[in-house]
Amino acid sequence: MCIRDSDIVVNASSQFGIHEVKVPIWSTPNQSDLVWYKATKQPDGKYVVHMNIRNHKNHRGTYMTHVYMYNNRGQQTAIALNNTNLPAIPDTLKAQVKNVNKEAGSYDVIIQAASQQGIDRVEVPTWSMKNQSDLVWYKAQ
């Protein structure tokens, strides 16, 4: 077994055949972000689970991963993998104006944003009057 990026690759075998492989992953002490993933069998016989941090409330820190194999007789075999650290990512926000079209009175705002908590939305306020009486909020796409 190895953790590659956010994929868990499982080499599993049983003399009775494998019914399924499940992989619980969590990061919090009370397991409030616990998700049980069902591994997908690959053509080479290995099983793969793709861990997505969004499924874990975008928590950063130490993740615990176990693997449970169930054979065709209903017997379970389980192991705990080494902990995996997903370090905090500082929030970043960068923007620049591009594609100014003076004739049409338009331009694009190119935005780069990242947040360890995930991004709900990005909005861009735009105005030309000193008192902002013509303020318009645009939702970035």
UniProtKB/TrEMBL annotation:
It comes from the Bacteria. It holds the Pfam family GBS_Bsp-like. This is N-acetylmuramoyl-L-alanine amidase.
